[in-house]
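Collaborator request, handled under Task 6.
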Amino acid sequence: MPNLETYNILIKISCRKRQFDQAKKLLDWMWSYGVRPDGYSYGTLINGLVKCGTLLDALKVFDEVSERGLTPDVTCYNILIDGYIKSGLVDEAKEIFQRLTTDSEVYPSVVTYNVMINGLSKCGYVSESLEFWRRMKVNERKLDVFDEGGEEKFVRRLEKNGGLKLEEGRKKVEEGERKNRGEKMNIWVKFLNYHPLGGALLRKTTGILKQVVT
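Structure tokens returned to the collaborator:
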């Protein structure tokens, strides 16, 4: 009788061939024959469906994990969130993220936050992208989204996708906790430096920046 590893290989092959109905049947057979699927079993199928743009089918498979008494691992969440973000379905992506945060057995990883931060900024949701950056800092996740020049890339993306308006930036700076203000100011200054009108904007915000460091 095939074991878990064998079934997972067959599911992976089926998904590569886009034979998703066959992959679903394999999952059903696993349950029928007493072979308990794992996160990889479902994650492979979810990933295949997402890559083909069939997000509703991917969500149904994702929901089946819980219905079967299993807990979706964070990888399954990340795949689904990334799929919705890349399809421009930001609200749906945020709903999946919310489900993850209320799940008592798994929690957002660095990858999860990076998907949300990068995806939101690419879609032009500058304010919300910065909010997820703040939440990652509060939750003490490693800020690798800004490692090796990532911070400058992030700021450039903010500018490219709609820009960071003066009033929006001011609110973001002022609403942060004091312990995070230094990082927020750094982001704001870098944005101003990259912006074509950065010099003028920087002069206008001198008072705001002084408030941050005092």
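The cover message to the collaborator said: "The chain has two domains: 1-107, 108-214. Confidence is low (pLDDT under 50) at residues 143-150, 169-174, 176-185, 190-214. Please let us know whether this matches your experimental observations."
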